[in-house]
Design goal:
Number of strands: 7
Distance between the termini: 166 Å
Number of helices: 8
Order of helices and strands: HHHHEEHEHHEEHEE
Strand content: 5-15%
Shape: elongated
Structural class: alpha/beta
Length: 278
């Protein structure tokens, strides 16, 4: 290529001078500007479509929000209420304070033994020293002046306030513990004296030096009679069991036990102690 044709040829012709232009690179470089223009125009068209759609959707949304909704008016009719009735409020329930309980004295079963073996706390309380006190299983200090015995208080009030119906014992039912236990006529001191005066130490037991406590079990029925007398526990022998049963059967009528203001049959255990004197 001479210098005259240099100014009339473009850069590609100069670059591919003397080379194979049919290979493909020459055509690609020659049509590069045209392809770039088409790509730019296509991109611009897509951008215009997207922007136009966005603007149009905003306009449609704004038009829909500007539409006024007519308010719905609903009339409310108030009904005339009947006059309120005067309610009678009952007075609060009266709380009654229970009376104080009297003092109680522990019951000591009588035991036949020598005087020097009897401790002071095991001695049977005399009847004239009981006074207004109640007989129980422990010594409890109470109000001996204004206090009341709980079983007597229940009996005077009709057995309760009528809300809970008490269990009515059957005629042939035998209890082991009741509200008021059966008692020997005259009390514990009289029972101790009766045993002391009537128990005879069997000769066979004395000769064989048999001693100990015999537990006699019997039932005091509704009338106070002594029934079903028997001994329980280990047998001592020597006639101690037979003598204990004989003396218990010889007892007079007891004061029957009471449950729910009724006389009931109560099973009772009485210890009888035999001690030889040296």
């Amino acid at each position: 290529m001479n210098t005259t044709n240099i100014y009339n040829a473009d850069f590609l012709d100069i670059l591919f001078e003397g080379r194979n232009k049919d290979y493909g690179a020459y055509d690609l470089r020659r049509s590069e500007d045209r392809r770039v223009r088409k790509a730019l125009m296509g991109t611009a068209s897509i951008a215009l479509v997207v922007i136009g759609g966005y603007v149009m959707s905003n306009q449609l949304f704004a038009a829909s929000t500007n539409t006024r909704n007519e308010p719905v008016v609903k009339a409310t009719v108030l009904e005339t209420l009947p006059p309120a009735e005067d309610k009678v409020i009952p007075p609060p329930p009266v709380v009654t304070t229970p009376p104080p309980a009297v003092s109680s004295i522990k019951v000591t079963p009588p035991v036949i033994t020598r005087d020097e073996l009897v401790r002071a706390e095991d001695e049977v309380v005399k009847l004239d020293s009981i006074g207004n006190k109640s007989i129980a299983v422990a010594n409890v200090k109470g109000d001996d002046i204004n206090g009341q015995d709980i079983p007597a208080l229940i009996a005077s009030n009709g057995g309760g306030n009528g809300i809970v119906e008490a269990h009515q014992p059957a005629k042939d039912e035998i209890f082991t513990t009741v509200e008021i236990m059966p008692s020997f006529p005259g009390g514990e001191q009289a029972l101790f004296k009766f045993l002391h005066d009537n128990v005879r130490y069997p000769r066979v037991a004395q000769e064989n030096e048999i001693q100990g406590t015999i537990f006699v079990q019997f039932v005091v029925d509704r009338e106070g009679n002594i029934n079903d007398v028997k001994t329980i526990g280990a047998t001592k022998g020597g006639g101690l069991e037979e003598e204990s049963i004989r003396v218990v059967k010889k007892m007079p009528k007891w004061k029957p036990g009471r449950q729910n203001q009724q006389n009931v049959s109560v099973q009772f255990n009485l210890p009888v102690t035999y001690t030889l004197q040296n």
